[in-house]
Design goal:
By secondary structure, the chain is an alpha/beta fold. Helices cover about 35% and strands about 25% of the residues. α2 runs parallel beside α3. One of its GO terms (biological process) is phosphorelay signal transduction system.
Length: about 110
Amino acid sequence: MSKRILVIEDEPTMRLLLRDFFESVGYQVLDAPDGQTALDIADTEPFGLAFVDINLPDISGDQVMRRMRERGVSAELVVLSGNLRESYESKISDLRVHEVLEKPVDLLVLQE
């Protein structure tokens, strides 16, 4: 897996927390505050793992992941949600999502 991670999160505090954590353990972090920015990054920058907030302001996280897969992105995808698995699980079942994590994210879980 690439040592680059894409964090797609509209909440600035959560985005910064994840960025700081991953950089502290040796990863290079790309980040996006919305779906379109994430797709633009995915078109130009390689990464091995993406953390995707399911509720983004412009394009839903499930649509961002779907478009990334359609564009050939093979990175592992981890969904971040404050509403764990409630209404979108069927929308992401075919996207090869590696994990679904509930926010706020326990950083100890991320170390595993």
